[in-house]
Amino acid sequence: MPKITPYFSKKLIAWYIQNKRELPWRNTLNPYHIWLSEIMLQQTRVSQGLPYFLKFVAAYPKIEDLANAPEDEVLKLWQGLGYYSRARNLHATAKIISEDMRGVFPNNYKDLLKLKGVGDYTASAIASISFNQPEAVVDGNVYRVLSRHFSISTPINSTTGQKEFKQLAQQLIDKDQPGTFNQAIMEFGARYCVPQNPDCENCIFNNSCVAFQQNKVAVLPVKIKTKPVKKRFFNYLVVLSENEHTVLQQRTGKGIWQKLYEFPLIETSEEINLSSLKKLPQFQTFSEKINIENISLFNEKPVIHKLSHQHLSTRFWIVETLEDKENTVPISEVKNYAVPVLIADFVSEFFENY
């Protein structure tokens, strides 16, 4: 373990006070707002998460408001932010706190950790910022700053690495102002000690950063290679009835986009043409329910939608019918449903004149 001195923490906090961004969750100790911001900022840049934070606080000023909202409404408000399990966990946890804890957040790391969707990072952030407890946060920004400053090559996505960096961060934290320290190190990593081409020559730590002195900044932090990206091929069947209705289905499986809505989907092992599509058993089943008048391909070039470990190659097939089934949805109402951003973009482009 590197030698620890107050120098690092004091200098970091001084930098933060002079350079921090003014953000709404930094002007409050309200654990509801801190929790909301931290959940939203997981896997998400501040610039992307900020509008969503403002929308949620406006729609649900208190955690009881969030708890009482329909899940579909919460997912719709979350639409476009991705990693939708965060929204489902957010809603479930709001219900627990509102109903079982009378709207009062747990005030310590151990009890915060028991909440659904709250891991070490989020529990540490809330405990330190809202309740002034010396619990160090460790996220991607913190890994980067610490691995470079102390030249630590232990992989950050290994069990050993996670334990090592957590212990180091815990030793470094300023116990008198733990919330400020945690926000400072995350801000520094996000804005200065960035992944590519950081301005090391003008860094406040260039005299003490071991990686800079050893010319190892570009290779730190070290991360074990994860499994390769899986390629999937989606074929959406967009039903258009004569009186402007369509069909939407809710995803119920445990995979991506759980509980979001989409058009009827046929997934294939490769890109296919219309002739091949019509021969599929799934299409035969679909056509038994819909009296198809005509079918055409909307996008010859597939839409490539990239997720963390999956790349979706998607084509939209326009299915025209004279029928109007009971389970159809007026096209004018499709925009009110919580859908993946992939679907939302198509709806915006194709249905803009409806």
UniProtKB/TrEMBL annotation:
Alphabetical list of Pfam families matching this protein: HHH, HhH-GPD, NUDIX_4
Matching CDD domains: ENDO3c, NUDIX_DNA_Glycosylase_C-MutY
Names of required cofactors: [4Fe-4S] cluster
EC number per UniProt: 3.2.2.31
Domain HhH-GPD: start-end pairs: 40-191
Gene Ontology molecular functions: 4 iron, 4 sulfur cluster binding; 8-oxo-7,8-dihydroguanine DNA N-glycosylase activity; adenine/guanine mispair binding; metal ion binding; oxidized purine DNA binding; purine-specific mismatch base pair DNA N-glycosylase activity
BP terms from Gene Ontology: base-excision repair; mismatch repair
Catalytic activity: Hydrolyzes free adenine bases from 7,8-dihydro-8-oxoguanine:adenine mismatched double-stranded DNA, leaving an apurinic site
Key words of the record: 4Fe-4S, DNA damage, DNA repair, Glycosidase, Hydrolase, Iron, Iron-sulfur, Metal-binding
Domain of life: Bacteria
Co-factor remark: Binds 1 [4Fe-4S] cluster.
Top EC class of this enzyme: hydrolase
Gene3D superfamilies named among the record's database cross-references: Helix-hairpin-Helix base-excision DNA repair enzymes (C-terminal), Hypothetical protein, domain 2, Nucleoside Triphosphate Pyrophosphohydrolase
PANTHER family: ADENINE DNA GLYCOSYLASE
Chain's role: Adenine glycosylase active on G-A mispairs. MutY also corrects error-prone DNA synthesis past GO lesions which are due to the oxidatively damaged form of guanine: 7,8-dihydro-8-oxoguanine (8-oxo-dGTP).
Family membership noted in the UniProt record: Belongs to the Nth/MutY family.
Designated name of the protein: Adenine DNA glycosylase
Gene expressing this chain: mutY
